Amino acid sequence: MQSIREKPRLSFWQIWNMSFGFLGIQFGFALQGGFMSRIFQTLGAEKDAIPLLWIAAPLTGLIIQPIVGYLSDRTWHVKFGRRRPYFLIGAILSTCALFFAPYSSALWMAAGSLWILDASINISMEPFRALVADKLPDSQRSYGFVIQTLIIGIGTWIASNLPWMMTQIGVPNTAAPGVVPDSVKFAFAIGAVVLFSSILYTILTTNEYPPEDLEAFEKEKEENKGFWNGFKEIFKNISGMPNVMKKLGVVQFFSWFAFFTMWSFATPAITEHIFKATDTTSLAYNNAADSVGNYLGTYGLISMFYALILAFITSKVKINRKLVHMLSLMAGGSGFILIYFITEPWMLHICFALVGIAWASILSMPYAMLSSSVNPKQMGVYMGIFNMFIVIPQIVAALGGINLMYKFLFGEEVIYTMVLAGTSLIVAGFANLLITDRNATHDG
Fold first, then answer.
1. Domain for residue 1, yes or no?
2. Which residue segment(s) compose the domain that 352 sits in?
3. What pLDDT digit, counting tens, does each position of 6-39 carry?
4. Under the phi-then-psi rule, with left for phi > 0, alpha for psi from -120 to 50, and beta for the rest, what region is 122?
5. Looking at the domain assignment, is residue 2 inside a domain?
6. Residues of the signal sequence (predicted)?
7. How confident is the model at residue 327 (pLDDT cuts 50, 70, 90)?
8. In terms of pLDDT, which residue wins out, 74 or 288?
């Protein structure tokens, strides 16, 4: 679906500038995804309890994303625009939460820090998705989301390696029982600085298009003013979501179940299965946990290169988004399953390289398909509602879905969580066959 106004094609650097804030957002996500379970274990959490400690984050996203999307659709300021005010609010709150998270002295504090961090990042994240759809013509949507993915890949790789980098320059990597090592604290502090400065860069370098009919926009906003009217409008949009969005929801469910499993269990699974390290106070465990972060960084690095390839292709030719996404998810699923079979730690780079292919596609293709299927005037709220299909599988996983499924399907060993993640991604790949709308599956 296309706006009445013909949007001009933007240059690479214009798209880069408006997406650059995602570098900081991904620093936040990569640090929490790679190291919050390590923090939980350091503070005494049992492995099976880790998913439940993550639950506040997706629950908050389920509520915040549609509300922020709805509000940003109805925001317009001559100087600050539509989406940028939410970038700034989210950046300030996320920066504070990211800095203080590793200083938690109890599990409830760490879980609370994760909740605040994820809620704050959510305030910024979906307006960034909506901004790409706001600014780009349909023919550049895939390209725009791929550039965004390229930046996310850079952020994932650097942030995932930060504790390891800190250790290499002499920052202590062990601490007293129940205390997070300085290497992690320094990494989170650097991440906080990058998060705020990169979002500020986008705010300062990017302008936004005003509503096509400002008078009608203000009139509609006034008519729908009020708390209750806002919720009625959100629920109306949920009940009336396009069929393409529902089918993408199936793909998203299994995709994000897989990645939540990885974020929750990669550290305990790999440190135990590959490195044979279980004592969270030992140097062996903390070095192994740093290595897990390094290997997780590989999926960010490969997602960056894969995004570069997709950016080049989508700038030259039209692609079949569905086919690209299906094959990419299957590659990632194979990577997760291979973790169970490898015998040497270096082989994890191969496994997570395959995961990186899936990650790059997850962050671009579904949004390109969605943005071509919804009303441009409702882009923000639908991007927020689409987040339901990201957070619901995480809630299911956190409430016992992971623990029940990997033990029921495969066995008691925690490494089977990675096999479960791989199986889930392959199912997500096949679910793409449900999507048949050509406007969604092909570039305009």
1. no
2. 12-210+217-441
3. 678 888 899 899 889 989 988 988 898 778 888 8
4. alpha
5. no
6. none
7. very high
8. 288
Average pLDDT over residues 295-318: 81
Mean pLDDT calculated for residue range 420-436: 93
CATH, residue 382:
1.20.1250.20
Q: Quick one: three-class SS letters along the chain?
A: CCCCCCCCCCCHHHHHHHHCHHHHHHHHHHHHHHHHHHHHHHCCCCHHHHHHHCCHHHHHHHHHHHHHHHHHHCCCECCCECCHHHHHHHHHHHHHHHHHHHHCCCHHHHHHHHHHHHHHHHHHHHHHHHHHHHHCCHHHHHHHHHHHHHHHHHHHHHHHHHHHHHHHCCCCCCCCCCCCCHHHHHHHHHHHHHHHHHHHHHHHHCCCCCCCCHHHHHHHHHHCCCHHHHHHHHHHHHHCCCHHHHHHHHHHHHHHHHHHHHHHHHHHHHHHHCCCCCCCCCHHHHHHHHHHHHHHHHHHHHHHHHHHHHHHHHHHCCCEHHHHHHHHHHHHHHHHHHHHHCCCHHHHHHHHHHHHHHHHHHCCHHHHHHHCCCCHHHHHHHHHHHCHHHHHHHHHHHHHHHHHHHHHHCCCCCCHHHHHHHHHHHHHHHHHHHCCCHHHHECC
Count of domains for the chain: 1
Phi then psi for residue 81, to 5 deg, are 80, -150
Lookup: tokens for 238: 């949920």
In whole angstroms, give the CA distance from residue 355 to residue 38: 21
**What pLDDT was estimated at residue 4?**
46
What Å distances lie between residue 213 and 47, 103, 218, CA to CA? 55, 49, 9
Whether 443 shows a pLDDT value over 70: the answer reads no
The pLDDT of 379-401, averaged and rounded, is: 81
The separation between CA 208 and the C-alpha centre of its own chain, rounded to angstroms, equals 24
pTM of the entire structure? Answer: 0.72
Does 109 fall in a domain? Answer: yes
Within the chain, how many helices (H) and strands (E) appear? 20, 0
Inside any domain, residue 66 = yes
CB-CB contact of 87 with 202 (8 Å): yes
pLDDT band at 3 (very low <50, low <70, confident <90, very high): very low
Reported as a single tens digit per residue, the pLDDT across 98-120 is: 999 999 888 888 888 888 888 88
